[in-house]
């Protein structure tokens, strides 16, 4: 069974299992409490240790960071509640099966492979995160913000070791992965809270005004990062999980919800992980910049945002352990998801081969710290590429009757390839990627217009094709 399952079906296993190709029956619906802890734990992980400091290297101001994250994360929650959860409880299908009904099985495989490759790059960036903690007692030279490749043999050996261990554990199956990750999540959340308070003490903060002054009016970006304004923070934080909400990946989770109001539980992930944890991690970097080592780093221009030393500077060995665990709890299930996606290409092979392929690719990616150091841009690209597929589901769901097109056309027509889906995605992706490249527009700024255009074009192409 596992060798034919998709990444989205893996998420379904977290939520309760089975019903891969049929609506979830009412006997298996779950209340909001089933989703609260999952989202809180999933979004306070290894990526947060990188993203927080990267905001500071992008020169954000206090208002940009604190208020921008508040609004951007609210928009993400609203997207989950009124789009993802709303459609999920109406159809109660996985993203995979829903997309297959519309696009056909051939295009779904293309989506799975693209998703799997992005997952591998994300897992690789978490190997970098873990290596910065493991490397502290080994005296490893930390990767700098503008490093592309490995900076020494020690870094290479640590990444290879972490990659091998993670791949072996992921290959044992998701029961092992999920149980250990759930056990570790409270430790990681506690570490973020402690790091935040310790960093505030190191910065001498005794009032909200002094907290606000940490970032002040912002500054020049560091290490080749682009300058983040208020709108960069709002839009980026909204679409940091674009593939999950407007991209509809979390249909596979919320199809188990009793009602769409369970979508509000995503606020636990956004405001525990993407607000508290990002700001706590940013405080770690701010505190480090006040130390003699931080001052020397700024003077040299060789900017490092390695999570390991930042956490160690705040809470010692507990920080090292927390960073290793956070990187692991992100990388391990991510490799498992990627492996299941790749397995769709080799369905007759043992399921473990998909995981080994994913782990190997992730390990190679981990040798290049640029994936971690450019995580803001990578996450923007991930959402930009995959989110428009969700627009196809959204626009069909809400507008198929008004447009006079058949719902689930590939299933109805008995075809494996619906060209309306490919054409809509290709035109929207091509147009807005070109605009982003030609006019140096941050990709997150064009994710929403690309998503809207893809949905509209899908309706237009479907109308034309089905008429013929």
Summarize the structure in short:
With 468 residues, the chain is an all-alpha fold. It is 72% helix and 0% strand.
What does this structure look like?
With 468 residues, this protein is an all-alpha fold. 72% of the residues lie in helices and 0% in strands. Helix 6 (105-134) runs antiparallel to helix 15 (317-343), helix 7 (153-171) packs across helix 15 (317-343) and helix 20 (419-438) packs antiparallel against helix 21 (443-467). It starts with 6 loop residues before the first helix and ends with a helix. Keywords: Membrane, Transmembrane, Transmembrane helix. This is Purine-cytosine permease-like protein. The chain crosses the membrane at residues 62-83, 117-140, 152-171, 183-208, 228-247, 268-289, 309-331, 351-372, 378-399, 420-435, 441-461.
Task: Looking at this protein, list some descriptive labels.
disordered N terminus, 21 helices, globular, mainly alpha, Hydantoin permease, 0% strand, 468 residues
Blueprint (SSEs and pairs):
Layout: H1 7-15, H2 33-42, H3 46-57, H4 62-91, H5 95-103, H6 105-134, H7 153-171, H8 174-202, H9 208-213, H10 230-239, H11 251-254, H12 266-289, H13 292-300, H14 307-315, H15 317-343, H16 351-366, H17 370-373, H18 375-403, H19 409-413, H20 419-438, H21 443-467
CATH top-level class: Mainly Alpha
The first-to-last residue Cα distance is: 38 Å
- Please report the number of helical segments: 21
Strand segment tally: 0
pLDDT averaged residue by residue: 85
- The helical percent reads over 70%
Which H/E pattern describes the elements?
HHHHHHHHHHHHHHHHHHHHH
Largest sheet: none
Class from helix and strand fractions = mainly alpha
CATH arch. level architecture: Orthogonal Bundle
Flag low-confidence runs: 1-17
Number of domains: 1
Question: Shape from CA axes?
Answer: globular
Strand portion, in percent? Answer: under 5%
CATH fold group: Hydantoin permease
> CATH-wise, what's the superfamily?
Hydantoin permease
Protein name: Purine-cytosine permease-like protein
Keywords: Membrane, Transmembrane, Transmembrane helix
InterPro entries: CodB (IPR030191)
Transmembrane segments: 62-83, 117-140, 152-171, 183-208, 228-247, 268-289, 309-331, 351-372, 378-399, 420-435, 441-461
């Amino acid at each position: 069974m596992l060798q034919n399952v998709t990444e989205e079906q893996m998420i379904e296993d977290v939520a309760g299992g089975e019903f891969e190709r049929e609506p979830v029956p009412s006997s298996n619906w779950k209340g909001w409490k089933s989703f609260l802890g999952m989202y809180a734990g999933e979004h306070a992980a290894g990526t947060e240790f990188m993203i927080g400091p990267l905001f500071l290297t992008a020169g954000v101001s206090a208002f940009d960071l604190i208020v921008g994250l508040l609004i951007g994360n609210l928009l993400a929650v609203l997207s989950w509640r009124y789009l993802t959860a709303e459609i999920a409880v109406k159809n109660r299908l996985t993203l995979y099966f829903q997309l297959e009904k519309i696009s056909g099985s051939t295009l779904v495989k293309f989506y799975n492979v693209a998703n799997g490759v992005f997952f591998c790059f994300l897992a690789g960036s978490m190997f970098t995160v873990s290596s910065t903690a493991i490397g502290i007692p080994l005296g490893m030279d930390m990767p700098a913000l503008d490093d592309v490749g490995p900076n020494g043999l020690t870094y290479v050996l640590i990444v290879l070791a972490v990659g091998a261990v993670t791949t072996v554990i992921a290959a044992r199956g998701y029961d092992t992965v999920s149980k250990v990750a759930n056990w570790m999540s409270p430790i990681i959340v506690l570490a973020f809270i402690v790091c935040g308070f310790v960093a505030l003490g190191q910065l001498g903060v005794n009032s909200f005004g002094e907290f606000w002054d940490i970032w002040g009016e912002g500054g020049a970006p560091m290490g080749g990062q682009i300058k983040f304004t208020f709108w960069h923070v709002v839009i980026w934080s909204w679409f940091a999980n674009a593939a999950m909400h407007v991209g509809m990946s979390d249909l596979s989770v919320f199809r188990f919800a009793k009602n769409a109001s369970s979508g509000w539980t995503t606020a636990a992930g956004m405001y525990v992980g993407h607000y508290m944890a990002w700001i706590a991690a940013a405080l770690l970097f701010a505190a480090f910049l006040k130390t003699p080592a931080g001052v020397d780093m700024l003077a040299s221009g060789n900017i490092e945002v390695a999570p390991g030393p930042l956490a160690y500077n705040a809470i010692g060995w507990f920080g090292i352990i927390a960073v290793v665990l956070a990187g692991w709890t992100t990388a391990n299930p991510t490799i498992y998801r990627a492996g299941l996606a790749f397995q769709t290409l080799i369905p007759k092979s043992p399921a473990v081969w998909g995981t080994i392929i994913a782990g190997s690719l992730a390990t190679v990616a981990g040798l290049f710290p640029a994936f971690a150091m450019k995580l803001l841009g990578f996450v923007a690209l991930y959402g930009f590429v995959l989110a428009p597929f969700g627009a196809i589901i959204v626009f069909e769901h809400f507008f198929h009757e008004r447009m006079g097109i058949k719902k689930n056309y590939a299933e109805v027509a008995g075809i494996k390839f619906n060209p309306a889906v490919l054409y809509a995605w290709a035109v929207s992706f091509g147009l807005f990627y070109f605009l982003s490249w030609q006019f140096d527009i941050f990709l997150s700024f064009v994710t929403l217009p690309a998503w809207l255009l893809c949905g509209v074009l899908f309706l237009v192409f479907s109308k034309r094709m089905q008429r013929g």
